[in-house]
Amino acid sequence: MGGTRAEQRAATRRALLAEGRRRFAADGYHDVVLAEVAQAAGVTKGAAYHHFASKAGLFRAVVSEVQHELGERVADAARRYDDPWEQLRAGCRAFLAAGRDPVVRRIVLLDAPAVLGWDEWRAMDEDSSARHLAEALEVLVKAGVIADQPVEPLTRLLSGAMNEAALWLARSTTPQAPAQTERALDRLLNGLRSQND
Amino acid sequence: MGGTRAEQRAATRRALLAEGRRRFAADGYHDVVLAEVAQAAGVTKGAAYHHFASKAGLFRAVVSEVQHELGERVADAARRYDDPWEQLRAGCRAFLAAGRDPVVRRIVLLDAPAVLGWDEWRAMDEDSSARHLAEALEVLVKAGVIADQPVEPLTRLLSGAMNEAALWLARSTTPQAPAQTERALDRLLNGLRSQND
DNA sequence: GACGGTAACATACCGGGGGTATGCGAAAGG
DNA sequence: CCTTTCGCATACCCCCGGTATGTTACCGTC
Known about the structure:
In chain A, 77% of the residues lie in helices and 0% in strands. By secondary structure, chain A is an all-alpha fold.
């Protein structure tokens, strides 16, 4: 066991983050006890407080990780298309699919706003997944595909719509629910096209 | 001090609910300590546990109250119109305005899903405010105003859109943000009209 | 109209868990 | 080699949710 000091430090940090992610996703922030996370990671509570300022600090680090992974998933899905409109649709579909992942669902969508506060949650969401949505909408406005308008309100509306839809889809048992949701989202997006204004 | 037994009981319960509502809205669920709520209500912690099963039980009762008041506000706004489409729009506008109330914002939109769990939150939302949205959409589908489709996915999308938009509007400082959001919402809704299908 | 019962609390207590202060051994640096 | 510092472990505090028990006053009953 071992390696250099920085390596060891990085290893324990990774172990804490990984175990924290597992437990936060499975049990929710409140029911997770920090000492158990540390123990499962092979260290004690003292180590956790050496790496993070508090239980919420560990949670914040986990949220940040998951958020950025989610943003990458969305961006990757969008990059597979050339048409900006199709990029937007693909990103939305990827987000809806990602919401079924308990890690995303429980940690990012359910607990994070309440634990970290809405302002901080929004800031983190902004520079990971929601940013891609805002950029895609901006491109479509500039190209004249959708009506000229401030993109921020639109971004919040669509972001919220997909957050909630993702939460719902994760609990839905009807197999055609994802397709129906994507179809409904398409209809809503079509309302943005310029000629409808 | 005062009245019959049932009256006294009801009075204490009301006091606990009122003080709980104040503190939950101001400080958030986690930072509220039950003994202080009871003390401010003129009783002790024992009384609170006589009326509610737990701290979460008191919170649940407060959420239920606020939810129903919110549902009434939305329904009242809608009833002022005859045209179903205008009823939908009015209800949405009323909801967005209500979200600026810290009681609604903090208790119902931010803490409730995390504290009570998404399933219970959704069930409570269903038989208060979200139900009106689903009914309005149902009417519009039946009347052929919007394209024939399952209303449940659409309800979740729009409900989520307005939840998030309300949270954002409450933190926004730009005075034209509400109007811009309503305009963006109108565009989205227009996408649902039958001829666009 | 005494009287037992019970409802509506108050009081006392417990235990879990987040946070902190301190100790300690091993790696890094001179 | 010797010391400093870093990366943890250990021991401890205390707040707060929950419970168990005591106490007072209302309420139906004879």
